[in-house]
Design goal:
mainly alpha, two-stranded antiparallel sheet, two-stranded antiparallel ribbon, 15 helices, 4 strands, globular
Length: 348
């Protein structure tokens, strides 16, 4: 009985109610392009791409504890592999996409090698270096990647069906986001995920228990960067253009912030964090002109910096008051109402 309860707790959907809610959400997701504007579909598409990328970072950092600030650099690797294969060699998108993921995964293996000898702040700095090395290589290989001028890439297609509209590309990204979620959750609940968690919690104790740190740390980098490569490829094919400006270093910080806000080490936490911060960005964009009108003396500077200010404040607030993220608070709320009318203290 105890094993059954433990297995049910690890399931992505824990009962019939969760399955019903999932299919309702899935239905709404696939009919919403008929009712939403192109701008809203663009926002939702960016949310979907962020979910794919954050799942990879969650496996690497949230589960395995290997903090990376070079995640966007590995997105750039996947993006340019797919861009070069499709634009210069005529490789179909659906063949170039897995190759882009594998290429980013191999790059992750290379830059993940320092994790075998260093950790903490020093590992963070090595992943920062990885980002700038990747961007430097992209710029230097001008004849292949287009360098700082960028490279035009074709839209994905299946035979004569081209994903050349906002709605079509939304369906494509949504499908990949759902698949990425299912795969990430199954990795996290399986043997590999448990090894990742053991390494994150105490790597020396994990090694004493027989866990091969060398193997599992590199697996974490490989899988996490495969996700990043796929997300990067989806990003450049959406815009139809690959440029190093699409992969700024600060985006790596914001992807890590999504994990902090949503909840590290959780599949749903990664989704909540990506949705929360992406929608927050859109809200700030809408509210920017309003605040600029209220403070005309610093209108331009205030409007330009508002997004950075708000995201920074959100990160600080969550680190202080809810370091385990939105998901943990949601679980506390559910526990409170499940046990009501008993006191809140009994649910903690």
């Amino acid at each position: 009985m105890a094993d059954d309860l433990y297995g049910r707790d690890l399931n992505l959907f824990k009962g019939k109610k969760d399955w019903v809610l999932f299919f309702i959400l899935l239905g709404l997701l696939y009919v919403c392009p008929f009712f939403l504007s192109d701008r809203v579909l663009t926002v939702l598409t960016m949310v979907g791409i962020s979910i794919v990328s954050v799942h990879g970072l969650n496996l690497l950092t949230g589960y395995c504890g290997q903090v990376s600030l070079g995640h966007v650099g590995f997105m750039a690797v996947g993006a340019y592999i797919s861009a070069v294969l499709t634009a210069r060699m005529g490789v179909p998108f659906f063949l170039a996409l897995p190759l882009a993921g594998l290429g980013a995964g191999v790059a992750g293996l290379i830059f993940g090698l320092p994790s075998l000898r260093i950790k903490g702040f020093y590992l963070i700095m090595s992943t920062v270096a990885a980002h700038f090395i990747v961007i430097w290589l992209v710029i230097q290989l001008h004849s292949i990647t287009g360098g700082s001028d960028g490279l035009a890439v074709p839209k994905p297609r299946i035979g004569g069906f081209v994903f050349n509209t906002k709605a079509r590309y939304f369906y494509l990204v949504s499908t990949f986001a759902i698949l990425a979620t299912i795969v990430a959750h199954n990795i996290g609940r399986g043997r590999v995920g448990r090894a990742f968690i053991a390494i994150r919690d105490h790597d020396i104790a994990a090694e004493v228990m027989g866990i091969n740190l060398w193997s599992y740390k590199l697996q974490a980098f490989f899988v996490g960067c495969v996700y990043a490569g796929v997300a990067g490829a989806l990003l450049v094919h959406y815009f139809g253009f690959a440029s190093v400006d699409q992969f700024p270093f600060m985006d790596s910080v914001w992807y890590l912030a999504m994990l902090i806000v949503g909840g590290m080490g959780s599949t749903f936490g990664a989704i909540l964090g990506a949705v929360f911060l992406k929608l927050l960005d859109e809200l700030v964009t809408i509210a920017g002109p309003f605040f600029a009108h209220m403070f005309p003396a610093v209108a331009a500077q205030f409007a330009a910096s508002l997004s950075l200010i708000v995201r920074g404040l959100i990160i600080v607030v969550f680190l202080i008051f809810e370091p385990r993220g939105v998901l943990h608070r949601w679980e506390m709320v559910k526990a409170y109402f499940r046990l009501w009318p008993f006191s809140r203290e009994e649910t903690e």
